[in-house]
């Protein structure tokens, strides 16, 4: 169980504090238990002894992003990509944060495209690519990315909602309506999609 695994990892790191695997396992278990600060402390021990271990930097970024520390999270994702240029999740998260902050949008576009290149069947990555296009005011490209995303297995309510938003911005109101309806079918609690539909009905 997780308690025994944590005990093993603690013993291993006491024997050799440089053991990346032991520190990563402790970090994972502590993060799963909601002990983010302790998890970060273990993940941060790894790069000093295993600089090519990009997964630790990625996990640092995720924890920092969850805490709303977006600037440090960006640096962690950049470090993760430097260690492993083919980490699609680091590319995706970096692109999403940059798009959300409307910063370094060319870098965001490069990373978003790289994530999609590495995992073309991941609808979440296409959704991030669309977010970057929207931040760059390229709605046609955003629509293309989202039309591909919604056709894939695993495309959730939020992706259909985003598709509806882009279609509405592109003045394709009937298609936008269908996208919002699909978003609500997948998640009846999608407030943004419901409000969009109600707003359209009230016009």
Describe what you observe in this structure:
The protein has 203 residues and is mostly helical. Helix content is 78%, strand content 0%. It is built from 13 helices and no strands. Helix 6 (70-83) packs antiparallel against helix 7 (88-101), helix 7 runs antiparallel to helix 8 and helix 10 (139-150) packs antiparallel against helix 11 (157-169). The longest helix is centred in the first third of the chain and has 14 residues, at 2-15. The chain is elongated. The protein starts with a helix and ends with a helix. Mean pLDDT is 85; it is low at 4-18.
Question: What are the salient characteristics of this protein?
Answer:
13 helices, 203 residues, 0% strand, mainly alpha, 78% helix
Concise synopsis of the structure shown:
The chain contains 13 helices and no strands. The protein has helices at 2-15, 20-32, 36-43, 46-49, 54-66, 70-83, 88-101, 105-118, 123-135, 139-150, 157-169, 173-186, 191-202.
How are the SSEs ordered, and which strands pair?
Layout: H1 2-15, H2 20-32, H3 36-43, H4 46-49, H5 54-66, H6 70-83, H7 88-101, H8 105-118, H9 123-135, H10 139-150, H11 157-169, H12 173-186, H13 191-202
């Amino acid at each position: 169980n997780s308690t025994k695994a944590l005990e093993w990892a603690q013993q291993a790191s006491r024997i050799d504090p440089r053991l990346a695997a032991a520190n990563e396992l402790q970090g994972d278990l502590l993060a799963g238990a909601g002990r983010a600060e302790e998890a970060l402390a273990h993940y941060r021990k790894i790069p000093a002894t295993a600089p090519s271990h990009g997964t630790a930097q990625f996990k640092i970024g995720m924890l920092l992003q969850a805490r709303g520390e977006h600037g440090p999270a960006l640096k962690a994702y950049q470090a993760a990509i430097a260690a492993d240029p083919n980490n699609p999740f680091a590319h995706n998260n970096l692109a999403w944060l940059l798009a959300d902050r409307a910063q370094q949008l060319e870098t965001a576009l490069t990373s978003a495209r790289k994530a999609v290149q590495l995992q073309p069947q991941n609808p979440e990555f296409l959704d991030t690519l669309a977010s970057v296009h929207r931040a760059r005011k390229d709605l046609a490209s955003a629509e293309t990315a989202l039309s591909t995303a919604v056709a894939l297995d695993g495309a959730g309510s939020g992706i259909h909602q985003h598709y509806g938003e882009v279609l509405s911005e592109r003045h394709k109101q009937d298609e936008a309506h269908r996208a919002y309806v699909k978003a609500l079918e997948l998640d009846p609690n999608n407030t943004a999609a419901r409000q969009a539909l109600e707003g359209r009905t009230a016009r």
